[in-house]
Write a structure and sequence with these properties.
The protein has six helices and eight strands, in the order βββαβαβαββαβαα. With 221 residues, it is of the alpha/beta class. It has one domain: Rossmann fold, CATH 3.40.50.1820. The chain has an eight-stranded mixed beta sheet, with helices on both faces. α1 packs parallel to α5 and α2 crosses α3. The longest helix is centred in the last third of the chain and has 19 residues. It is globular and about 40 Å long.
Length: 221
């Protein structure tokens, strides 16, 4: 699936993005890591998330937050970036006319976790390495939209043991998948992110088309 460049208007700003047209399964908006530390939509973990959705027939949109790449404006400490997420979701919803997931990595996961609470019509949210040792997650309360968290076993920025405790508050029914021998940057491990997402999406899409009595409960791996 090739991706086409798009321009997304966010108030007085224009954000640059890449759209991949998929099948009828749904769509996802993917956000990137911290702008002040080199994060952008070309990050390899972002690309791995996009690939997982692409393989399952989803349309994808990844974009640069304000002040990154060719996107206008400047870093806004997560406040303006929440607006960027809302704008991207609205833009993509109008374009694809189907249900939307929201997925983010590191800083993008933090922004998404805050923005998701205010977003109507969102199908679900996936967080990859939410940086609980780096950003303030105290504002994140119970949110049933958070359905999957992916973490790395050797991640000091997003330690899985802390994420597991916080997940009880965010959504105790959400799935936590831990990738062994990986740190926050997932060097050589990004394919495992893609595979976890594929399995998760297949299970979710199958459950949507099964009677509740037949779907059965999900369990951790």
């Amino acid at each position: 699936m090739s991706e086409a460049r798009v321009c997304i208007r966010a108030g007085g700003l224009v954000l640059e993005g890449l759209v991949g047209e998929g099948g009828a399964n749904g769509a996802v908006v993917v956000t990137h890591p911290h702008p002040l530390y080199g994060g952008n939509m070309y990050n390899r973990v972002v690309a791995a998330i996009v690939e997982g959705y692409r393989r399952e027939g989803y349309s994808t949109l990844r974009f640069n937050f304000r002040g990154v790449g060719q996107s206008g404006g400047g870093y806004s400490e997560g406040i303006g970036e929440q607006e960027d997420v809302e704008t991207a979701l609205n833009y993509f919803r109008e374009r694809v006319k189907c249900s939307i997931d929201l997925a983010g990595y590191s800083f993008g996961a933090w922004v998404n976790a805050i923005a998701t609470k205010k977003t109507a019509g969102l199908r679900r949210s996936i967080l990859v390495s939410p940086p609980v040792n780096f950003m303030d997650f105290s504002r994140i309360e119970f949110n049933p939209k958070i359905e999957l968290v992916i973490a790395a076993s050797k991640d000091d920025i997003a330690p899985p043991e802390i994420i597991k405790k916080m997940l009880r508050k965010w959504n105790p029914e959400a799935k936590l998948r831990i990738i062994r021998d990986a740190d926050h940057f997932y060097q050589g491990k990004t394919s495992e992110i893609t595979e976890i997402l594929q399995k998760f999406l297949r299970a979710g899409d199958t459950a949507l088309h099964m009677p509740k009595s037949a779907a059965g409960p999900e369990t951790d791996e």
